[in-house]
Amino acid sequence: MTVGGRDAASYSAVEVIGSSPIEHTAAGEEIAPEHELLTVNMGPHHPATHGVLRLMVSLEGEVVRDLKPVVGYVHTGIEKSCEDKSYWKAIPFVERMDYLAYFSNMESFVGCVERLIELEIPERAKYLRVIHLELNRIHSHLVWLGTSALDLGAMSMFFYCFRDRDKVLDLFEMSTGQRMHTRYFQVGGVAEDIPIGFEQRVLDFCAEFPTRVDQYEALLTNNEIFLNRTRNVGVVPRERLLQLGVTGPLLRAAGEPWDLRKVEPSLAYGDFDFTIPVGTIGDGWDRFKVRVQEMRESVRIIEQALGGLPEGPWISDDRKYVLPPRHELPTSMEALIHHFKLVTEGYRVGPGEAYYAVESPRGEIGCFILADGSAKPARVHFREPSFVNLQALRDMCIGGYLADLIQNLAMLDPILGGIDR
Fold first, then answer.
1. Taking 70 as the threshold, does the pLDDT of residue 193 lie above it?
2. How far apart are CA 371 and CA 109, in angstroms?
3. How far is the first Cα of the chain from the last one, in angstroms, to the nearest whole number?
Protein backbone atom coordinates (compact mmCIF):
# COMPACT_ATOMS: atom_id res chain seq x y z
CA MET A 1 0.00 0.00 0.00
CA THR A 2 1.33 3.45 -0.90
CA VAL A 3 0.23 6.92 0.10
CA GLY A 4 1.07 9.79 -2.21
CA GLY A 5 3.72 7.70 -3.92
CA ARG A 6 5.48 6.95 -0.61
CA ASP A 7 5.73 3.95 1.65
CA ALA A 8 2.82 3.93 4.08
CA ALA A 9 5.17 2.82 6.84
CA SER A 10 6.99 6.14 6.63
CA TYR A 11 4.38 7.93 8.70
CA SER A 12 2.26 7.10 11.69
CA ALA A 13 -1.26 7.96 12.74
CA VAL A 14 0.07 8.41 16.24
CA GLU A 15 1.66 11.80 16.89
CA VAL A 16 5.16 10.90 18.01
CA ILE A 17 6.83 14.28 17.68
CA GLY A 18 3.87 16.60 17.18
CA SER A 19 3.14 18.38 13.92
CA SER A 20 6.23 17.01 12.25
CA PRO A 21 7.20 17.84 8.67
CA ILE A 22 7.91 14.13 8.30
CA GLU A 23 4.22 13.27 8.57
CA HIS A 24 3.28 16.06 6.17
CA THR A 25 5.75 15.09 3.46
CA ALA A 26 5.05 11.39 3.87
CA ALA A 27 1.33 11.91 3.47
CA GLY A 28 1.91 13.74 0.19
CA GLU A 29 0.50 17.09 1.27
CA GLU A 30 1.05 20.11 -0.91
CA ILE A 31 3.68 22.50 0.45
CA ALA A 32 5.19 25.66 -0.94
CA PRO A 33 8.11 25.02 -3.34
CA GLU A 34 10.45 27.25 -1.34
CA HIS A 35 9.81 25.03 1.70
CA GLU A 36 9.87 21.70 -0.09
CA LEU A 37 11.10 18.93 2.18
CA LEU A 38 12.44 15.51 1.29
CA THR A 39 11.93 12.65 3.71
CA VAL A 40 14.66 10.04 3.48
CA ASN A 41 15.40 6.87 5.42
CA MET A 42 18.72 6.26 7.10
CA GLY A 43 18.88 2.61 8.00
CA PRO A 44 17.83 0.24 9.35
CA HIS A 45 20.95 -1.30 7.78
CA HIS A 46 23.09 1.77 7.24
CA PRO A 47 26.61 1.32 8.71
CA ALA A 48 26.57 4.79 10.32
CA THR A 49 23.46 4.05 12.41
CA HIS A 50 25.54 2.05 14.94
CA GLY A 51 23.04 -0.78 14.94
CA VAL A 52 19.73 -1.73 13.40
CA LEU A 53 18.25 1.77 13.75
CA ARG A 54 16.00 3.52 11.25
CA LEU A 55 15.99 7.31 11.11
CA MET A 56 13.34 9.16 9.14
CA VAL A 57 14.99 12.45 8.26
CA SER A 58 13.17 15.45 6.82
CA LEU A 59 15.61 17.48 4.73
CA GLU A 60 15.55 20.90 3.16
CA GLY A 61 18.56 20.61 0.92
CA GLU A 62 21.23 19.29 3.29
CA VAL A 63 19.69 20.85 6.40
CA VAL A 64 17.81 18.58 8.82
CA ARG A 65 14.35 20.02 9.53
CA ASP A 66 13.00 17.06 11.48
CA LEU A 67 13.96 13.58 12.56
CA LYS A 68 12.16 10.57 13.92
CA PRO A 69 13.94 7.44 15.19
CA VAL A 70 12.11 4.18 14.43
CA VAL A 71 13.17 1.26 16.62
CA GLY A 72 12.13 -2.34 17.03
CA TYR A 73 14.18 -4.11 14.38
CA VAL A 74 16.34 -6.21 16.70
CA HIS A 75 13.45 -8.24 18.18
CA THR A 76 15.25 -9.53 21.25
CA GLY A 77 12.35 -9.73 23.71
CA ILE A 78 14.84 -10.02 26.55
CA GLU A 79 12.58 -8.73 29.31
CA LYS A 80 9.82 -11.22 28.48
CA SER A 81 12.35 -14.02 28.12
CA CYS A 82 13.57 -13.28 31.65
CA GLU A 83 10.03 -13.71 32.94
CA ASP A 84 9.99 -17.22 31.49
CA LYS A 85 13.24 -18.27 33.17
CA SER A 86 14.35 -18.77 36.74
CA TYR A 87 16.36 -16.03 38.39
CA TRP A 88 19.41 -18.22 37.93
CA LYS A 89 18.91 -18.65 34.17
CA ALA A 90 17.95 -15.03 33.40
CA ILE A 91 21.46 -13.64 33.88
CA PRO A 92 22.77 -14.58 30.38
CA PHE A 93 19.75 -12.84 28.82
CA VAL A 94 20.29 -9.49 30.51
CA GLU A 95 23.98 -9.51 29.55
CA ARG A 96 23.01 -9.31 25.90
CA MET A 97 20.94 -6.12 26.05
CA ASP A 98 23.70 -3.53 25.97
CA TYR A 99 26.27 -5.89 24.51
CA LEU A 100 29.14 -3.47 25.24
CA ALA A 101 28.22 -3.05 28.91
CA TYR A 102 27.37 -6.60 29.91
CA PHE A 103 28.80 -6.23 33.42
CA SER A 104 26.55 -3.22 34.08
CA ASN A 105 23.56 -5.23 32.84
CA MET A 106 24.46 -8.08 35.16
CA GLU A 107 25.02 -5.81 38.15
CA SER A 108 21.62 -4.12 37.74
CA PHE A 109 19.84 -7.49 37.62
CA VAL A 110 21.70 -9.44 40.31
CA GLY A 111 21.81 -6.34 42.52
CA CYS A 112 18.03 -6.05 42.24
CA VAL A 113 17.58 -9.72 43.17
CA GLU A 114 19.95 -9.28 46.13
CA ARG A 115 17.89 -6.29 47.25
CA LEU A 116 14.71 -8.38 47.03
CA ILE A 117 16.10 -11.24 49.11
CA GLU A 118 18.07 -8.86 51.40
CA LEU A 119 21.34 -10.63 50.71
CA GLU A 120 24.58 -8.82 51.54
CA ILE A 121 27.56 -9.80 49.40
CA PRO A 122 31.15 -10.08 50.76
CA GLU A 123 33.49 -7.09 50.57
CA ARG A 124 35.86 -8.89 48.24
CA ALA A 125 33.00 -9.54 45.82
CA LYS A 126 32.12 -5.83 45.84
CA TYR A 127 35.67 -4.88 44.89
CA LEU A 128 35.89 -7.55 42.20
CA ARG A 129 32.64 -6.30 40.70
CA VAL A 130 33.93 -2.72 40.66
CA ILE A 131 37.15 -3.79 38.92
CA HIS A 132 35.23 -5.57 36.17
CA LEU A 133 32.65 -2.79 35.85
CA GLU A 134 35.36 -0.18 35.30
CA LEU A 135 37.31 -2.36 32.88
CA ASN A 136 34.02 -2.78 31.04
CA ARG A 137 33.53 1.02 31.00
CA ILE A 138 36.95 1.41 29.35
CA HIS A 139 36.09 -1.35 26.88
CA SER A 140 32.79 0.31 25.94
CA HIS A 141 34.31 3.78 25.56
CA LEU A 142 37.07 2.37 23.35
CA VAL A 143 34.50 0.88 20.97
CA TRP A 144 32.64 4.22 20.99
CA LEU A 145 35.80 6.23 20.31
CA GLY A 146 37.03 3.98 17.52
CA THR A 147 33.71 3.83 15.67
CA SER A 148 32.90 7.52 16.19
CA ALA A 149 36.28 8.60 14.87
CA LEU A 150 35.77 6.25 11.91
CA ASP A 151 32.45 7.98 11.15
CA LEU A 152 34.38 11.25 10.87
CA GLY A 153 37.10 9.77 8.67
CA ALA A 154 39.78 9.02 11.28
CA MET A 155 40.39 5.44 10.25
CA SER A 156 43.57 4.85 12.26
CA MET A 157 41.74 5.53 15.54
CA PHE A 158 39.53 2.52 14.93
CA PHE A 159 42.51 0.17 14.85
CA TYR A 160 44.24 1.79 17.81
CA CYS A 161 41.12 1.62 20.01
CA PHE A 162 40.36 -1.97 19.12
CA ARG A 163 43.97 -2.92 19.84
CA ASP A 164 43.55 -1.73 23.43
CA ARG A 165 40.02 -3.06 23.69
CA ASP A 166 41.43 -6.50 22.89
CA LYS A 167 43.70 -6.24 25.93
CA VAL A 168 40.67 -5.65 28.14
CA LEU A 169 38.95 -8.69 26.63
CA ASP A 170 42.08 -10.72 27.36
CA LEU A 171 41.74 -9.71 31.03
CA PHE A 172 38.07 -10.77 31.04
CA GLU A 173 39.04 -14.10 29.53
CA MET A 174 41.65 -14.61 32.23
CA SER A 175 39.31 -13.89 35.14
CA THR A 176 36.02 -15.31 33.83
CA GLY A 177 36.87 -17.74 31.03
CA GLN A 178 34.98 -15.67 28.44
CA ARG A 179 35.86 -12.51 26.53
CA MET A 180 32.27 -11.27 26.31
CA HIS A 181 29.01 -12.22 28.07
CA THR A 182 30.87 -13.80 30.93
CA ARG A 183 28.06 -14.53 33.44
CA TYR A 184 30.66 -13.66 36.07
CA PHE A 185 28.34 -11.84 38.47
CA GLN A 186 26.17 -14.20 40.50
CA VAL A 187 23.49 -13.51 43.07
CA GLY A 188 25.60 -13.39 46.22
CA GLY A 189 28.91 -12.33 44.68
CA VAL A 190 30.97 -13.49 41.72
CA ALA A 191 31.40 -16.92 40.13
CA GLU A 192 35.10 -17.38 40.92
CA ASP A 193 37.93 -15.58 42.63
CA ILE A 194 40.45 -13.94 40.31
CA PRO A 195 43.30 -16.25 39.24
CA ILE A 196 46.94 -15.87 40.19
CA GLY A 197 48.60 -13.24 38.05
CA PHE A 198 45.42 -11.36 37.22
CA GLU A 199 46.15 -8.45 39.55
CA GLN A 200 49.58 -7.86 38.03
CA ARG A 201 48.24 -8.01 34.48
CA VAL A 202 45.56 -5.46 35.31
CA LEU A 203 48.12 -3.20 36.97
CA ASP A 204 50.35 -3.49 33.89
CA PHE A 205 47.39 -2.49 31.73
CA CYS A 206 46.60 0.46 34.02
CA ALA A 207 50.22 1.63 33.84
CA GLU A 208 50.24 1.57 30.04
CA PHE A 209 46.70 2.66 29.16
CA PRO A 210 46.94 6.38 30.16
CA THR A 211 49.75 6.77 27.61
CA ARG A 212 47.41 5.28 25.02
CA VAL A 213 44.77 7.84 25.94
CA ASP A 214 47.41 10.54 25.51
CA GLN A 215 47.97 9.23 21.98
CA TYR A 216 44.24 9.32 21.20
CA GLU A 217 44.04 12.92 22.33
CA ALA A 218 47.19 13.86 20.41
CA LEU A 219 45.58 12.51 17.24
CA LEU A 220 42.21 14.22 17.69
CA THR A 221 42.28 17.24 20.00
CA ASN A 222 44.33 19.39 17.59
CA ASN A 223 42.93 17.83 14.44
CA GLU A 224 41.28 20.64 12.49
CA ILE A 225 38.74 18.35 10.83
CA PHE A 226 37.73 16.76 14.13
CA LEU A 227 37.46 20.17 15.83
CA ASN A 228 35.28 21.60 13.06
CA ARG A 229 33.02 18.56 13.08
CA THR A 230 32.45 18.47 16.84
CA ARG A 231 32.72 21.98 18.34
CA ASN A 232 29.37 23.79 18.64
CA VAL A 233 27.69 20.88 16.85
CA GLY A 234 24.72 19.05 18.33
CA VAL A 235 24.35 21.36 21.31
CA VAL A 236 21.50 20.44 23.66
CA PRO A 237 21.06 22.56 26.82
CA ARG A 238 21.34 20.94 30.22
CA GLU A 239 17.73 21.86 31.08
CA ARG A 240 16.42 20.09 27.97
CA LEU A 241 18.43 16.96 28.71
CA LEU A 242 17.02 16.87 32.25
CA GLN A 243 13.49 17.19 30.84
CA LEU A 244 14.12 14.19 28.62
CA GLY A 245 15.61 12.11 31.45
CA VAL A 246 18.97 11.80 29.71
CA THR A 247 21.81 10.48 31.90
CA GLY A 248 25.42 9.48 31.54
CA PRO A 249 28.17 11.24 29.56
CA LEU A 250 25.57 13.11 27.47
CA LEU A 251 24.21 14.87 30.55
CA ARG A 252 27.60 15.41 32.14
CA ALA A 253 28.89 16.95 28.90
CA ALA A 254 26.26 19.68 29.33
CA GLY A 255 27.59 20.56 32.80
CA GLU A 256 25.43 18.40 35.10
CA PRO A 257 27.69 16.27 37.37
CA TRP A 258 25.15 13.47 37.85
CA ASP A 259 26.80 10.08 38.28
CA LEU A 260 25.28 7.29 40.36
CA ARG A 261 28.76 6.20 41.47
CA LYS A 262 28.91 9.47 43.45
CA VAL A 263 25.25 10.33 44.02
CA GLU A 264 24.11 6.90 45.22
CA PRO A 265 27.30 4.85 45.56
CA SER A 266 26.67 1.12 45.49
CA LEU A 267 29.14 -1.73 45.91
CA ALA A 268 32.46 -0.20 47.05
CA TYR A 269 32.41 3.05 45.04
CA GLY A 270 32.23 5.08 48.23
CA ASP A 271 35.72 3.83 49.16
CA PHE A 272 37.46 5.34 46.15
CA ASP A 273 38.73 8.79 45.24
CA PHE A 274 37.76 9.81 41.70
CA THR A 275 36.26 12.82 39.95
CA ILE A 276 33.28 13.19 37.65
CA PRO A 277 34.28 14.85 34.35
CA VAL A 278 31.82 17.50 33.13
CA GLY A 279 31.60 19.67 30.04
CA THR A 280 30.28 23.15 29.46
CA ILE A 281 27.81 23.54 26.58
CA GLY A 282 27.04 19.92 25.68
CA ASP A 283 28.33 19.80 22.12
CA GLY A 284 30.12 16.93 20.38
CA TRP A 285 33.48 18.16 21.65
CA ASP A 286 32.33 18.08 25.28
CA ARG A 287 30.96 14.57 24.82
CA PHE A 288 34.32 13.46 23.45
CA LYS A 289 36.31 15.06 26.26
CA VAL A 290 34.05 13.71 29.01
CA ARG A 291 34.28 10.11 27.81
CA VAL A 292 38.04 10.29 27.32
CA GLN A 293 38.50 11.64 30.84
CA GLU A 294 36.15 8.94 32.20
CA MET A 295 38.57 6.32 30.90
CA ARG A 296 41.35 7.96 32.92
CA GLU A 297 39.16 8.00 36.03
CA SER A 298 38.28 4.33 35.54
CA VAL A 299 41.99 3.52 35.64
CA ARG A 300 42.26 5.37 38.97
CA ILE A 301 39.34 3.41 40.42
CA ILE A 302 40.77 0.06 39.26
CA GLU A 303 44.17 0.79 40.78
CA GLN A 304 42.62 1.76 44.10
CA ALA A 305 40.39 -1.33 44.09
CA LEU A 306 43.34 -3.62 43.47
CA GLY A 307 45.40 -1.83 46.11
CA GLY A 308 42.70 -2.26 48.75
CA LEU A 309 41.27 -5.60 47.63
CA PRO A 310 40.01 -7.32 50.80
CA GLU A 311 40.80 -10.89 51.66
CA GLY A 312 38.02 -13.36 52.29
CA PRO A 313 35.22 -15.05 50.36
CA TRP A 314 34.13 -13.85 46.93
CA ILE A 315 30.56 -15.11 47.26
CA SER A 316 28.03 -15.39 50.06
CA ASP A 317 27.72 -18.63 52.02
CA ASP A 318 23.91 -18.54 52.00
CA ARG A 319 23.23 -21.99 50.56
CA LYS A 320 19.63 -21.07 49.86
CA TYR A 321 20.70 -18.93 46.91
CA VAL A 322 24.36 -19.79 46.26
CA LEU A 323 25.83 -22.93 44.72
CA PRO A 324 27.79 -25.22 47.04
CA PRO A 325 31.59 -24.93 46.75
CA ARG A 326 32.89 -26.99 43.86
CA HIS A 327 35.23 -29.06 46.04
CA GLU A 328 32.24 -30.47 47.95
CA LEU A 329 30.55 -31.99 44.89
CA PRO A 330 32.73 -35.14 44.57
CA THR A 331 32.36 -36.04 48.27
CA SER A 332 28.91 -34.80 49.34
CA MET A 333 25.66 -36.18 47.91
CA GLU A 334 23.74 -33.38 49.63
CA ALA A 335 25.90 -30.74 47.93
CA LEU A 336 25.46 -32.43 44.55
CA ILE A 337 21.67 -32.55 44.93
CA HIS A 338 21.59 -28.95 46.11
CA HIS A 339 23.68 -27.86 43.13
CA PHE A 340 21.38 -29.74 40.75
CA LYS A 341 18.21 -28.26 42.25
CA LEU A 342 19.52 -24.69 42.18
CA VAL A 343 20.63 -24.90 38.54
CA THR A 344 17.55 -26.72 37.21
CA GLU A 345 14.73 -25.31 39.35
CA GLY A 346 16.30 -22.20 40.82
CA TYR A 347 15.39 -20.60 44.14
CA ARG A 348 12.17 -18.95 45.21
CA VAL A 349 12.00 -15.23 45.90
CA GLY A 350 9.32 -13.99 48.28
CA PRO A 351 6.60 -11.66 46.98
CA GLY A 352 7.77 -8.07 46.59
CA GLU A 353 9.25 -5.59 44.18
CA ALA A 354 12.54 -3.70 43.93
CA TYR A 355 14.46 -1.32 41.70
CA TYR A 356 18.24 -1.15 41.54
CA ALA A 357 20.29 1.14 39.30
CA VAL A 358 23.97 1.52 38.46
CA GLU A 359 26.00 3.87 36.27
CA SER A 360 26.69 2.15 32.97
CA PRO A 361 28.93 3.62 30.23
CA ARG A 362 25.79 5.19 28.72
CA GLY A 363 24.04 6.35 31.89
CA GLU A 364 21.65 4.99 34.47
CA ILE A 365 20.68 1.40 33.84
CA GLY A 366 18.08 0.23 36.33
CA CYS A 367 16.30 -3.07 36.82
CA PHE A 368 12.79 -3.43 38.24
CA ILE A 369 11.69 -6.90 39.36
CA LEU A 370 8.26 -7.93 40.61
CA ALA A 371 8.45 -11.23 42.51
CA ASP A 372 5.43 -13.43 43.18
CA GLY A 373 7.03 -16.05 45.41
CA SER A 374 7.96 -18.45 42.60
CA ALA A 375 11.37 -19.26 41.12
CA LYS A 376 10.63 -17.00 38.14
CA PRO A 377 10.19 -13.21 38.22
CA ALA A 378 6.63 -12.12 37.50
CA ARG A 379 7.84 -8.94 35.81
CA VAL A 380 11.25 -7.71 34.68
CA HIS A 381 11.74 -4.23 33.27
CA PHE A 382 14.91 -2.30 32.57
CA ARG A 383 15.42 1.43 32.51
CA GLU A 384 17.85 1.27 29.60
CA PRO A 385 19.90 4.44 29.03
CA SER A 386 20.28 4.08 25.25
CA PHE A 387 16.50 4.03 24.87
CA VAL A 388 16.01 7.15 27.00
CA ASN A 389 18.97 9.01 25.54
CA LEU A 390 17.78 8.43 21.97
CA GLN A 391 15.15 11.12 22.59
CA ALA A 392 17.90 13.75 22.51
CA LEU A 393 18.95 12.95 18.94
CA ARG A 394 16.20 15.08 17.41
CA ASP A 395 17.24 18.13 19.44
CA MET A 396 20.86 17.51 18.49
CA CYS A 397 20.17 17.39 14.76
CA ILE A 398 17.43 19.90 13.86
CA GLY A 399 18.88 22.89 12.07
CA GLY A 400 22.20 21.16 11.38
CA TYR A 401 23.54 19.51 8.27
CA LEU A 402 22.98 15.89 7.31
CA ALA A 403 26.71 15.32 7.75
CA ASP A 404 26.40 16.56 11.34
CA LEU A 405 23.68 13.97 11.95
CA ILE A 406 26.32 11.24 11.53
CA GLN A 407 28.53 12.90 14.13
CA ASN A 408 25.61 13.47 16.51
CA LEU A 409 24.52 9.85 16.34
CA ALA A 410 28.08 8.71 16.94
CA MET A 411 28.42 10.96 20.00
CA LEU A 412 25.06 9.69 21.27
CA ASP A 413 26.60 6.19 21.52
CA PRO A 414 23.36 4.18 21.28
CA ILE A 415 23.29 0.39 21.61
CA LEU A 416 20.31 -1.05 19.77
CA GLY A 417 20.34 -4.30 21.73
CA GLY A 418 19.43 -2.24 24.80
CA ILE A 419 16.88 -0.09 22.96
CA ASP A 420 15.05 -3.12 21.56
CA ARG A 421 15.29 -5.25 24.68
1. yes
2. 13
3. 30
